[in-house]
């Protein structure tokens, strides 16, 4: 959920991309290299292929294959693209759990999201006097004070490899092959499938375009228990962004002027 953080610089060549990290305090280069290596073995073609790395250099650097296509952020995501995204996520989440279990946990996950969202609510951010915004703030505070967020901390299902970043700029559509690939693995790691789906559905990047979350989830094979967990993670993540959209909030400068009101409506629909 970090806002406005520049973490890397990219150099594009004909067949490869060179990524140099501007910050690496959370092990970003190692995380990305580990994920790309695992993906190359278990889901080749779903992400860039690892080519070379200098993980101990200053700054660290990795080289990966260059994939064709354009990102889905800022786009009206079509039904065909949603179906392709569902297939990509399903393929990612089918990597054997025993393999994923050996990976480091992603830094952004259920516990971090619950803690951060409750911390933002505790600061009582100034979100203005708009009635819809005030209603969403009241409803969100009540939900955060319930036991529902705490129930999200225990994952009853096997872990998955996750991007841990639902930014739609990480979804790459290939017009020729009619498929979606996943990029930017620097925050990746062992994660919770329901959380990962909540991230894709509710990341604030959705306001730049349109991606029908209900249509996406309908294309995935979710158990009733998973459906409820995804719903609650969507509530949590939507609330986290909402609380950062006040006049002085860190998410405000990066989004359209009406984002606070739109996000208030989104929060109320999810909590309804």
TrEMBL record:
Domain of life where this protein originates: Bacteria
Residues passing through the membrane, by range: none
Domain Aminoglycoside phosphotransferase: 16-221
Keywords attached to this entry: Kinase, Transferase
GO molecular function: kinase activity
Protein's name in the database: Aminoglycoside phosphotransferase (APT) family kinase protein
């Amino acid at each position: 959920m970090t806002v406005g953080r520049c973490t890397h610089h990219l150099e594009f060549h004909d067949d490869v991309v060179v990524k140099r990290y501007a910050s690496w305090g959370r092990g970003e280069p190692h995380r990305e290299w580990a994920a790309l290596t695992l993906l190359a073995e278990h889901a080749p073609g779903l992400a860039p292929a690892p080519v070379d790395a200098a993980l101990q250099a200053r700054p660290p650097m990795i080289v990966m294959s260059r994939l064709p296509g354009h990102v889905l952020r800022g786009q009206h995501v079509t039904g065909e693209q949603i179906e392709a995204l569902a297939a990509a996520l399903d393929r990612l989440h089918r990597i054997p759990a025993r393999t994923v279990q050996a990976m480091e946990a992603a830094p952004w996950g259920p516990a971090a999201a619950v803690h951060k969202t409750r911390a933002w609510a505790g600061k009582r951010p100034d979100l203005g006097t708009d009635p819809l915004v005030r209603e969403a703030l009241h409803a969100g505070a009540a939900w955060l004070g319930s036991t529902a967020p705490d129930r999200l901390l225990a994952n009853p299902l096997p872990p998955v490899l996750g991007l841990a970043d639902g930014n739609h700029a990480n979804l790459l559509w290939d017009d020729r092959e009619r498929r979606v690939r996943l990029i930017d693995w620097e925050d990746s790691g062992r994660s919770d499938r329901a959380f990962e789906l909540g991230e894709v559905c509710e990341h604030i990047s959705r306001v730049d375009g349109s991606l029908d979350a209900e249509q996406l989830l309908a294309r995935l094979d979710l158990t009733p228990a998973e459906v409820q967990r995804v719903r609650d993670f969507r509530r949590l993540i939507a609330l986290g962004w909402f609380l950062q959209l006040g006049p002085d909030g860190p998410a405000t400068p990066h989004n359209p002027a009406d984002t606070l009101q739109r996000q208030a409506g989104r929060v109320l629909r999810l909590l309804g």
